[in-house]
Design brief:
The complex is a heterodimer. By secondary structure, chain A is an all-alpha fold. Chain A is about 75% helix and about 0% strand. Chain A has a single domain, classed as ABC transporter involved in vitamin B12 uptake, BtuC (Orthogonal Bundle). Chain B has 18 helices and 22 strands. The two termini of chain B are about 45 Å apart. The chains are: A mainly alpha, B alpha/beta.
Chain lengths: ~350, ~500
């Protein structure tokens, strides 16, 4: 019983401390915490508009988070989702004139495919460098983020600048490439359905196919996978390529569903938040669906909070930080238990 | 004799498992105390309590008259307890002296090269002959063990705990070790020897203690007990002893290696290995660890592609097949390290079954996994091999070492292979589990299969093989028929020349 109480206290300590901290900071800013939190909730969950905003903000997080999951499960640390998002969107914009000639039912899948290939190739390069040259993918994927972001920046200042040549953003994509709205006048678009379908597909892939099992085996123990005849190199390549493809699709969905143009800072760090979403969701498609929903809700609520209670959106990043810390704390506790069991196993050898 | 270490009424739970249940234990100065037991019996856990790696839930530790409710490794070392683990904890790039200095309070003294230094005099007094300026990675296993013992002695250990010290040694090295231990005993050092080799325990020790399921079942002077008594105390029943009757091999050749050589991978490569294995035959590959057996095992299993030469399985060339292709062709392997090579420790048993069997495609329904069939096969393996308390969802890491190995053997035999390549299939297992694994391998031969048994345990190879090849520096140095003398094979292992 005492154990149980301690467990519960351990689980709650971070969220409660975090809540207290945030309340204190809002008070210090001379605003009402009650009003602030109320706006946060109503802006993300109160009504169709708020829910639609939450969903479209969760959408790129979910898609990219699924990509992160596949890579991490295979033991490949793809920190490059941000860059893969940019590259995915860039590829669609670059080919938009051609893609736009296709009839709408073909243009959208073709656009997603183009983005998937671009993101996949962008992520496969670090995988190749790791398996053949021993380059740490943690470093190379991050570096490729900067390359991708600068590449987009150069493109929208140069070859892809809008037709009048005045502003540093691309032309609007052709209508055939725009994702249909599901519930006008809200901005909810078809991409949300794609994201949920992707979550289901990733679940089936990871837990119900031999290939998915092989990826997880390579991630859990490359040595055991090797001795079981699994091609570890190929597994890492395909995990990274799928991972990058999903991130690329996340970029395309954001472009085709929401922004319709490409510009600098196109992604406000979706790729990094997606990593948080993936870890928060326990690298499991169901968990990531929930965690990206939560993070999406926070982002949607943030603007409402600033508008209605005058509390800066920065507070939301504080909330995100607290959530991530508390999850990390939980994970560390779980790991300590696992480690104790493993120690016992090791002793018995 | 005065008790140096007293463990009183030690109890320790791991989750729901009671690893130690009111165990008391004493080690005296100038005495060798053998601690025996099956895997999971608690012997290593008990010594980890003494050394401070594991905190007891209940009980007390008295060392040299001082009372501790819980030890820490730092306190244990300061008080004079030294532990030599099964896996050495040495910095390979450092010299012997540097390793001894590492973490020692008077490291300066250890690094002093003069003939009168304390390190040199310990080496002279104990017979732990090793050059302090040698780099550890250049030393064979037997000498590395000496470095571990030197480390403990240099810190002033008066009680030395050795965990399965002979598991990695040649017969010759074992003799050397025992000479050192006897000398240390004369000088008043207390020694606790964790082992599963009964003859060693009885020949060397003054006292024998046997643990079973976390309880002491026997603790008597070594002179008063027989091997049979100790063995049955360990497993809790009588054992059939002696060499096994092996089936008579048939005429047809199942596996043939022709001048197999491995590529350079940083470990000792195997070179120009040739043999022919008949149906119903067990071919033993003996050798001191690090003489190319790992490379040979990888070549046979398909983990490594050969540099040259070929491998024929029932007449078909499988040299270019990987592990998966060879399994489909009828060759299964039991890797040498179950925890890192054969199992995914965090994964449930069901997925661990899949790990070894996926190439056969038997658990597929269309493109998807047939979890029902997978669970059924896993449950069958669990039941047929008597893996108590496990379900298809049990993670592999929560099984004891013996049960992990039973599961791996069950899984690979379940693939119904014609040839099995087994690498150290009983390393670290207890008497009961060894008997079990051996019986399964012999059974496989009786059904017309064949086995390549690669083992560093010479007794195992002698007991189980129709023929024995001795590997030395990557080559086959000698071949012996069944019934060869242990001394002869041991000599060939150590020198690379047939006696």
């Amino acid at each position: 019983m005492r154990e149980r109480t301690r467990e519960l206290a351990g689980t709650l300590v971070f969220p409660l401390a975090g809540l207290a901290l945030i309340t204190g900071i809002i008070l210090l800013g001379g605003k009402s915490p009650v009003q602030g939190f109320a706006a946060l909730i109503s802006g993300s969950l109160g009504g169709a508009f708020a829910l639609a905003e939450t969903a479209i903000r969760a959408c790129p997080l979910l898609l990219a988070g699924l990509g992160v999951t596949i890579a991490f499960r295979a033991g490949a640390w793809n920190i490059g989702t941000e860059g893969q998002i940019y590259v995915g969107a860039l590829a669609v914009v670059a080919l938009a004139p051609a893609l736009g000639m296709l009839p709408a039912p073909l243009a959208v899948p073709a656009g997603l495919l183009v983005a998937a290939v671009a993101g996949g190739v962008w992520a496969w390069v670090p995988a190749f460098l790791r398996t053949r040259r021993g380059v740490q993918e943690v470093i190379s994927t991050i570096m490729l983020n900067f390359v991708a972001i600068q590449l987009v920046s150069w493109c929208v200042h140069g070859p892809l600048k809008e037709s009048t040549g005045q502003f540093p953003y691309s032309n609007e994509i052709p209508a055939a490439l725009m994702l249909p709205r599901l519930l006008p006048p809200t901005r909810l678009h078809l991409g949300v359905v794609f994201a949920l379908a992707a979550a289901a597909a990733v679940w089936v892939f990871l837990f119900r196919t031999v290939r998915g099992f092989q990826l997880r085996a390579v991630g859990a123990s490359p040595e055991a996978a090797l001795h079981a005849g699994i091609r570890t190199e190929r597994s890492v390549w395909s995990a990274m390529a799928i991972s990058g493809a999903l991130a690329g699709i996340a970029g395309a969905v954001q472009l085709m569903g929401v922004s319709h143009i490409l510009f600098e800072k196109f992604s406000p760090g979706y790729g990094y938040t997606a990593i948080a979403a993936a870890l928060l969701g326990g690298l499991h498609p169901v968990g990531i669906t929930l965690s990206s929903g939560l993070l999406g809700a926070l982002e949607a609520g943030a603007s409402a909070m600033q508008r209605e209670a005058g509390v800066s959106t920065v507070i939301v990043y504080l909330v995100q930080g607290v959530i991530i810390l508390s999850v990390a704390h939980q994970a560390a506790r779980r790991r300590a238990v696992t480690e104790a069991i493993r120690q016992r196993g090791a002793q018995e050898v | 004799m005065a008790a140096l270490l007293q463990l009183k009424d030690i109890t320790r739970d791991f989750g729901t498992v009671r690893a130690l249940d009111g165990v008391s234990f004493e080690a005296a100065a100038g005495e060798v105390h053998a601690l025996l037991g099956e895997n999971g019996a608690g012997k290593t856990t008990l010594m980890n309590v003494a050394f401070g790696f594991v905190r007891p839930d209940h009980g007390e530790i008295i060392f040299d008259g001082r009372r501790y409710t819980a030890m820490t490794p730092q306190a244990a070392m300061a008080a004079g307890i030294g532990m030599v683990h099964q896996h050495f904890k040495l910095v390979e790039e450092f010299t012997v002296a540097e390793n001894v200095a590492l973490g020692s309070p008077d490291y300066g003294e250890a690094l002093r090269p003069s003939e009168h230094s304390r390190l040199k005099s310990i080496i002279r007094d104990t017979g732990l002959d090793v050059d302090p300026s040698a780099v550890v990675e250049d030393l064979p296993v037997g000498l590395r063990q000496r470095v571990e013992i030197l480390k403990a002695l240099f810190r002033g250990s008066r009680l030395l705990i050795l965990d399965e010290p002979t598991a990695v040694l040649t017969p010759r090295e074992t003799e050397d070790l025992f000479r050192v231990l006897l000398r240390l005993r004369e000088q008043g050092t207390g020694i606790v020897l964790i082992t599963h080799k009964l003859d060693e325990a009885l020949s060397l020790s003054d006292r024998v203690t046997v643990l079973r399921n976390g309880k002491t079942v026997l603790s008597r002077p070594a002179a008063e007990v027989t091997q049979a008594e100790v063995a049955s105390a360990m497993v809790g029943r009588e054992l059939d002893s002696g060499a096994r009757d092996l089936p008579i091999p048939q005429e047809d050749i199942l596996l043939e290696a022709r001048d197999l050589s491995s590529p350079e991978t940083g470990q000792q490569p195997a070179q120009e290995i040739s043999f022919a294995l008949r149906a119903g035959e067990i071919l033993g590959i003996a050798g001191v660890e690090g003489n190319g057996q790992t490379a040979l095992a990888d070549l046979l299993a398909g983990v490594l592609a050969p540099q040259s030469g070929s491998l024929l399985l029932a007449g078909r060339d499988v040299s270019r097949e990987g592990v998966d292709g060879r399994l489909r062709a009828g060759l299964a392997h039991i890797p040498g390290d179950r925890q890192t090579q054969a199992l995914l420790l965090e994964f449930p048993l069901r997925e661990n079954l899949l790990l070894g069997r996926w190439p056969l495609g038997e658990f597929l329904r269309g493109p998807f996994l047939d979890l029902g069939a997978l669970s059924l096969s896993t449950r069958e393996a669990i039941e047929a091999y008597g893996i108590r308390g496990a379900t298809v969802q049990t993670p592999a890491m929560s099984l004891s070492g013996g049960n992990q190995q039973r599961f791996v053997v069950a899984r690979q035999l379940g693939a119904k292979p014609r040839v099995i390549v087994a690498v150290n299939p009983t390393r670290g297992l207890d008497v009961g589990a060894i008997e079990y694994v051996h019986a399964r391998l012999v059974e496989h031969c009786e059904r017309g299969g064949a086995v390549v048994l690669i083992s560093t345990d010479l007794d195992e190879v002698l007991a189980l093989s129709h023929r024995i090849l001795v590997m030395y520096r990557g080559r086959v140095a000698a071949e012996y028929p069944r019934g060869a003398r242990r001394e002869d094979v041991g000599l060939a292992m150590a020198t690379g020349r047939a006696a």
